[in-house]
Design goal:
By secondary structure, the protein is mostly beta strands. 4% of the residues lie in helices and 50% in strands. It is built from four helices and 43 strands. It is globular and about 70 Å long.
Length: 485
């Protein structure tokens, strides 16, 4: 992650900038996942245990001690839970996690629970030392050391190094959210953020493809973001382009109007023996920093090495990286009535450097460890649900009463990603503000501003692949900082 600093003075001129790293930039932002809960228990009362969904973020820094023990500092904890009466419980504080030899951990959190006009200070320690999820994930079940005769708090911590998650749904919806998004229709071809905003509208993605006449929004079937902010996607229907020719669901396209790859070329090293009646589409795609392309197809393909299933994750180097049974294995799956496991398939994919992968499925199934799994849920190959589909869409407040809107593609924005080559930022005054533009090979950018170089920088908007902002100045002098991933 690179940080570029520019100074903004009152007359809207920009002083020369410099690239620097340090301070908060050494930390890794984590986001709480499905399974994170705040527990309110009263053992003597024999009342039902109250479990409240816990969400929010924290920053994690790692230190290796002389003994080889790894210690993680847990800072900037900003969590929230909603009580039964609708009140919000805010949780803040710090802590640390010490990873002991043999796969054991010690966790200590010093937290302040703001609830009902009262701030309760509590120290939480883990109940069990065994590590249930490997780093860089965090997982621990903790209990407060302070308790009253009628109340004891516990919490379950489940987090991953996640800044944001961008995704495409299988079904469109009508947002009930007011504000800049406005009440209106979101189509199955918009790229959305789990924070509740549109990352890239469908028209911005397909507008460079040379499709004439202008067609209605086109549903997407895959998603990735490449250096330079180029969004990669596949279509779910066949169209004709005046500049690119026939575009099938088997063509991976770029938001710059280019063809990145065709499924026949991706499968070439597998030496296909027989093709399905129609060319298979691309269900999921991820381009690694090495240039290797991971992908999944919409139909089985018979190759010299055997059948390539539509739920397998393949590599452009001609190898099968994940078999479908391996992907689902930790869930101990069984099919829903009327379907088979072979029909479940893969619809979205993101492989982490540490060997884990996140994905969604084309059809739901029953899991012996996670219960009912829906097509729009984000899943981990470790065997847990990352997020339920309806939680991803909470920020949009869909008006439709659906249990699941599906998930066709996802992109994970994480501080673990390889830092892009240092770019530059340029600015120029515009009416009532300043235009700030980033130049470089980053996948995503975040503009921040502070009136004081040594003060706290506040986010301006949300992370975006488009490194271009118009910032009203309101006559204030200050400093811009741009993060890139």
């Amino acid at each position: 992650m690179a940080v570029v600093l520019w100074t903004l003075v009152t007359c809207l001129q920009l002083a020369p900038g410099k690239v620097f790293a340090g301070g908060d930039d050494r930390s890794i932002r984590h986001r709480l996942l499905e399974g994170s809960v705040l527990v309110d228990d009263c053992p003597p009362c024999a009342r039902p245990i109250i479990q409240l969904r816990l969400r929010g973020t924290l920053d994690v820094t790692a230190t290796v001690l002389e003994s080889g023990v790894q210690q993680l500092g847990l800072r900037n904890i900003a969590w929230h839970a909603s009580a039964a009466d609708g009140a919000t419980i805010g949780i803040s504080g710090t802590g640390h996690l010490t990873m002991q030899p043999g796969g054991f951990q010690d966790v200590v959190l010093d937290l302040v629970l703001a609830m009902g006009g009262t701030n309760l200070s509590r120290r939480f320690t883990n109940r069990a030392a065994a590590v249930s999820r490997p780093l860089p994930n965090l997982a621990a079940d903790l209990e407060s050391q302070e308790r009253t005769p009628v109340q004891v708090f516990g919490l379950s911590l489940r987090s991953a190094p996640l800044r944001d998650l961008w995704f495409v749904t299988s079904h469109g919806f009508t947002t009930g959210k007011d504000g800049t998004l406005g009440r209106g229709r979101r189509v199955a071809g918009d790229v959305l953020s789990m924070e509740g905003h549109v990352v890239a509208g469908n028209g911005r993605l397909t507008g460079q493809l040379g499709i004439m006449p202008i067609v209605p929004p086109l549903a997407l079937g895959a998603l990735d973001v490449q250096p330079g902010g180029r969004i990669m996607f596949a279509l779910r229907e066949r169209v004709f382009s005046e500049t690119l020719g026939h575009l099938s669901p088997g063509v991976v396209l770029g938001s710059d109007g280019s063809v990145f790859a065709r499924v026949r070329d991706l499968l070439d090293r597998f030496r296909p023996i027989a093709w399905p009646a129609s060319e298979p589409g691309v269900d999921a795609v991820q381009v690694l920093d090495s240039g290797e392309v991971l992908f999944s197809t919409t139909a089985d393909v018979l190759a010299s090495c055997g059948t390539l299933g539509h739920g397998d994750v393949l590599s452009s180097d001609g190898t099968v990286r994940w078999r479908f049974k391996e992907i689902l294995g930790a869930f101990v799956p069984s099919p829903w009535a009327g379907t088979t496991l072979e029909e479940v398939g893969i619809d979205a994919w993101h492989a982490w450097p540490h060997g884990e992968a996140w994905f969604s499925v084309r059809k739901g199934f029953h899991s012996a460890v996670a219960g009912s799994v829906y097509p729009g849920d984000v899943l981990s190959t470790g065997g847990w649900v990352v997020y339920r589909n309806l939680e991803l869409l909470e920020g949009f407040e869909p008006l439709e009463d659906l249990a699941d809107f599906g998930l066709e593609g996802l992109f994970v924005l994480t501080d673990l990603a390889a830092a892009p080559a240092a770019g530059s930022v340029r600015g120029s005054p515009v009416e009532h503000g300043i235009l700030v533009e980033g130049i470089g090979r980053a996948r995503a950018w975040q503009l921040e501003w502070s009136p004081d170089l040594g003060g706290t920088f506040a986010r301006v908007g949300s992370p975006t692949p488009w490194a271009r902002w118009i910032r009203p100045t309101d006559g204030q002098a200050g400093f811009f900082r741009v993060r890139s991933w």
